[in-house]
Amino acid sequence: KMEAAKKSFFSAAAFAVVGASANREKFGNKVLRALITTGKPVYPINPNSAEIEGQKAYPSLADLPESAKESGIAVSFVSPPAVSLASFPAAASLPPRALWFQPGASSGEVVEEAAKIGVDVLHDGPCVLVELNFHH
């Protein structure tokens, strides 16, 4: 099931990163840069930045352009559980191809609520950086 969920995540036409950071030391920046290497559109979600790593940033998933929503987007969460939870209504309305919670971004409640969205959910273990063999 995990492999199928990964496949569904990486087969998305675009990615959004909730908790994207402009600080290159931070996980939220590394995950963003790793996904950029796929060559697909990547949308950083950060209410305090206009642009991160050359990509236009959006305050929330609800602010993504229609084109992003229509293309089939997967969402990576590199955010505290409370922030992840708060973005679920917007995530559900995308609707996303898959949701991937990086280590530290999920909790029991987060996983339970994410399951209700009805898409593939990855949590507790695999990391986008490892999957994409990204070490910067």
UniProtKB/TrEMBL annotation:
It holds the Pfam family CoA_binding_2. SMART domains: CoA_binding. SUPFAM superfamilies: NAD(P)-binding Rossmann-fold domains. It comes from the Eukaryota. Gene3D superfamilies: NAD(P)-binding Rossmann-like Domain. Residues 9-105 form the CoA-binding domain. This is CoA-binding domain-containing protein. It comes from Palpitomonas bilix.
